[in-house]
Write a structure and sequence with these properties.
Blueprint lengths: L5 H15 L5 E2 L6 H10 L3 H5 L5 E2 L2 H34 L5 E3 L1 H9 L10 E4 L5 H10 L3 E2 L10 H9 L2 E5 L4 E5 L12 H6 L2 E5 L2 E5 L2 H14 L5 H13 L10 H14 L27 H25 L6
Parallel strand pairs: 1-2, 4-7
Antiparallel strand pairs: 3-4, 5-6, 6-7, 8-9
Helix pairs in contact: 1-2, 2-4, 5-10, 9-10, 9-11, 10-11, 11-12
């Protein structure tokens, strides 16, 4: 198998940017570079995205054939995913569990207008923290097997630790796995509760049926945070943020954390556009923060200060690499 190269990733990035600018006769790869370009598209999970826009691409016959052959099984697999998603949501509804589908098929329908446009994967379902046990039991009864790597529900320290410190457990089925979430991600501060997300939920059409999912602004914010968590290593994630940001108004920039704001900068540098949150108004002032304890105040305080500084420096370096073109890799 031919490996992708930095040149093929750069060519792919330019192709995607031109497509998002609605250009036609968009350049892709020259003769002899098709294999590396296709490998880059597969690495960044963009073969379906490109295949759906093939009429606007300047393709060699070999690359056109390769894109269609790579995209076909991905789109077929999404049909099975949609059936599994309907079965899972019906199962949870019958158990009295409210559920939001996010990422995956729902995100594809929101950002791309086609639930099969992002390719295949697993199913991500979000339930209230109080409903995790009931949701797990209902899905297990419907045929999904809980991953033994996660503790079983019960009055144990391991289960309490999982609920308190993690945000998902996995269940495996025949061909399609489920990531059952009770939080959107590892962050807790500033993230809406399930009840808030449910109250402003949206519905997307998946195979002729409506599926409850995150609202447009919530989907944008989660996609921006998810891209930052992965250090902006996937062009597909940046495309999601760009497309969602073009379609929704996520709110004032002042309401965002550092990770979504960094993602906005990376997306604008890599893929262009003026998407995303509105700029801060001239009258905006940063919220007043409590002064952190001095490093010599106490041992645990100094550790936390040093750790947070190191984390901020790491994220800033990652964003600078992504903006300069050093990532996605």
């Amino acid at each position: 198998m031919v490996a992708y190269t930095q040149e093929s990733v750069a060519a792919l990035r330019l192709t995607v940017r031109r497509l998002l600018e609605r250009a036609v006769d968009v350049p892709t790869a020259g003769a002899g570079d098709e294999a590396a370009y296709l490998a880059a598209a597969q690495r960044h999970r963009l073969v379906v995205f490109l295949a759906l826009r093939q009429d606007r691409l300047d393709l060699t016959p070999e690359l056109a054939r390769g894109l269609q052959e790579a995209a076909r099984p991905e789109r077929i697999a999404t049909l099975g995913m949609a059936q599994a998603l309907h079965r899972a949501t019906d199962t949870l509804a019958a158990a009295g569990v409210r559920v939001l589908s996010f990422k995956g098929l729902a995100l594809a329908a929101q950002a791309h207008g086609d639930f099969a446009a992002r390719g295949s994967g697993d199913l991500d379902l979000l339930v209230a923290p109080s409903d995790v046990v009931a949701a797990r039991a209902a899905l297990a009864a419907a045929g999904w097997t809980p991953d033994p790597a996660y503790p079983a529900p019960g009055p144990t320290w391991a289960w309490r630790h999982t609920l308190r410190n993690y945000y998902e457990i996995a269940l495996h089925g025949s061909g399609v796995s489920i990531d059952l979430h009770w939080h959107l991600g590892p962050a807790r501060s500033g993230v809406p509760s399930f009840d808030e997300l449910w109250g402003r939920r949206a519905s997307v059409d998946l195979g002729g049926r409506g599926i409850a999912t995150l609202s447009g602004p919530d989907a944008w914010r989660h996609s921006a945070m998810h891209a930052a968590k992965d250090e902006w290593a996937s062009l597909r994630s940046l495309v999601d943020v760009r497309l969602l940001g073009d379609a929704v108004d996520p709110g004032e920039d002042a309401t965002l954390g550092a990770a979504p704001r960094a993602t906005v900068g990376v997306v604008r540098a890599q893929l262009g556009g003026e998407h995303g949150p509105r700029p801060r108004p001239a009258s905006w002032r940063a919220p007043r923060r409590c002064r952190p304890p001095p490093p010599t105040c106490r041992r645990d305080g100094s550790r936390a200060t040093a750790r947070s500084r190191a984390r901020g420096a790491w994220r800033g370096a990652s964003a600078r690499r992504a903006i300069s073109g050093g990532s996605p890799r």
